[in-house]
Amino acid sequence: MFRRxxxxxxxxxxxxxxxxxxxxxxxxxxxxxxxxxDWEGKDEHGMAVKTTFKNLASDTAxxxxxxxxxxxxxxxxxxxxxxxxxxxxxxxxxxxxxMRVVPASDEVKELSFDFLGxxxxxxxEAGHQHHLVLHFDDAxxxxxxxxxxxxxxxxxxxxxxxxxxx
Length: 166
Known about the structure:
The protein has 1 helix and 10 strands; from the N terminus they run αββββββββββ.
């Protein structure tokens, strides 16, 4: 009797967990959508940076256009991916890293996207964006920490951004 109850409980848990995680990703994706608009700020060296978030495709994707000082602009597309949020980063280095995060709750202060692979990447050691931490400081301030990976070394690039008031 106990084994049967335990087996049923395991099945219920196995079915319920992905559904709860999918609910978290939908709630957190709404937080990403709320970033729509223009943002400006500085990097860790005090250089100007700006970005724009735009909701696309019937609100199924968020496009970010990031323009750090002295660099070509970069495009990142965010979308819900089953129980998580995925991104594809279109880099001026002509590769397209893919990353993903599975939110643990509806209320997150930070999303830590992990590298899954990349299109047009010559080798795993070729330079590419490898990690992104998107920190929600408050409704009008975010911090993005991108990690550039090349030849076994990681170099963080930190952008402190504030919502541009019209």
